[in-house]
Amino acid sequence: MVMSKIKFIKGFLKNWREVGSVIPSSRFLTGKMIEPIDFKKARVIVELGPGLGCFTRKIIEMMRKDAKLLIFEINPDFCRELGKNKDNRITVFNVSALDMAYHLKEIKADYVISGIPLSTLTENSHSLLLKAIKNILSDGGIYIQFQYSLGSYKKLKSFFRKVVLKFTLFNAPPAFIYQCVKDSTHLE
Q1: pLDDT at residue 20 in the model
Q2: How far is Cα 49 from Cα 64, in angstroms, rounded to an integer?
């Protein structure tokens, strides 16, 4: 556990724009992030920017035997750590989340869970990421994103008709959790 925290801190110091926080997410944030997932029904879950896998471990523990977890992480050190998990239900892609549609082809996700620090993205990358997420979500699918501010709320509302906002004080720093539902009738 201590080695994981040290690796996480090194990842942050190496590229803070990618990692977004100097310490991993708390168990309280993890609980809020996976709360909307119906693990009895979820067949495909996509995780973006998992770092060293705080959410990943809990998702694997909860998901069905026939479900798939597809992970997109651009940090090669984090990918090596995530790849140590030999569960055949997970696939780790060491590519940007912006390229996920290429790797998923015809696959539609029931849930997309993301730790990508949106505030560090350019306006163009932010829009491209939200379009990519919306494109891989099935109708009625849910995109779950945490951030340390409300700065992305307006942008998320322009892409998703229904955005539910949650909050946890018990994280360092405290975090906002956005739950965005894909509605096939809502156009950008």
Answers
A1: 43
A2: 22
Q: Do residues 176 and 166 make contact, with C-beta atoms less than 8 angstroms apart?
A: yes
Residue tagged 């168990």 (tokens): 27
Distances (CA, A) of 173 to 5, 29, 116, 128: 16, 10, 15, 27
Sign of CA dihedral 168, 91, 5, 153: negative
Q: Which of 100, 85, 89, 86 is nearest to 44 (CA)?
A: 89
Provide the pLDDT for residue 89: 98
Residue 51 Rama label (left phi>0; alpha psi -120 to 50; beta): left
d(CA 136, CA 109): 6
Query: The tokens 């069905």 sit on which residue?
Result: 64
Regions of the chain where pLDDT drops below 70: 1-23, 184-188
Contact between 163 and 179 (Cβ < 8 Å): yes
pLDDT at site 185: 58
pTM over 0.90: no
